[in-house]
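Readers of this paper often ask what the protein records in our data store actually look like. Below, we set out a record of this kind in full and without editing:
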Amino acid sequence: MDMTLLIKAAIMGLVEGLTEFLPISSTGHLILVGALLGFDDEKAKVFDIAIQTGAIFAVILVYWAKIRDTVVALPSERQAQRFALNVVIAFFPAVILGLLFGKVIKAHLFNPVVVAATFIIGGFVILWAERRQQTHPASARIHDVEAMTPMDALKVGLVQCLAMIPGTSRSGATIIGGMLLGLSRKAATDFSFYLAIPTLIGAGAYSLYKERALLSMADLPMFMVGLVVSFLSAWLCIRWLLRYIASHSFVGFAYYRIAFGLVVLVTAWSGTVASFLNHLCLGAKPQAVLTLVPMHLQMHWEDKAKQQRHG
């Protein structure tokens, strides 16, 4: 196996683990980093989805006690049955709408302007949700996932479907959406993690099955490296995030989304066509490189769109 490919797999795994559970869109960051690394063919797309499983193993590890107790109590305890039912209810809207509209969304919404707009809009929604809970503490009526009703779960599941729009962020949609629906920051974050388990495992298994013809045993080392790095980085990120939200809001992530979205919009509308790689090879300053990153991403998306139109 090519060592360069394994290093790329490790970098992608690191990006996945660090961004999957933060409200900043892991897909957007994976597309960006994959484009910069030249790791963006059809097999790489399958890889991006498959390594989400590593991040999910981290969730299972962090929440193992709760998951184990729920499974053990399922046959006899009503509370465990309701919790499991809530996760299933919240999971199904994404399955149904994903199968119905997934291809249409990929064909029409995967472009830099849409991604930039969702980054910016998502940032302002986060600011609104945080201000709402700060000025109206009573709006957070649910402080533990056990107190959620099936209707609460369905609403969060419907909000999760917004993540099919590139740049939205699955975790951002479920956490911030949950807060707007009456969950506390902690309860919304916990339920987002639980909901991620069937959602991301299902997406990974479906992608591997659908694109199995692209894969071979020679790809196993690459996938294993990505999974392991994704697991380790996600485990660290989850533990950090749970400590962070105990005393902080998501406002910092909102400003990050807005700033990143504005940079993408400016470069998309500027018509700049200079080559990112040539600029990098000529020793560009970091500030200039950061400015050209969204432009390179724009060129990458435009190439992909042309391939789809002529494919």
Summary: The first helix runs from residue 3 to 19. The CA atoms of residues 18 and 237 lie 6 Å apart. The chain is about 75% helix and 0% strand. The mean pLDDT is 84.
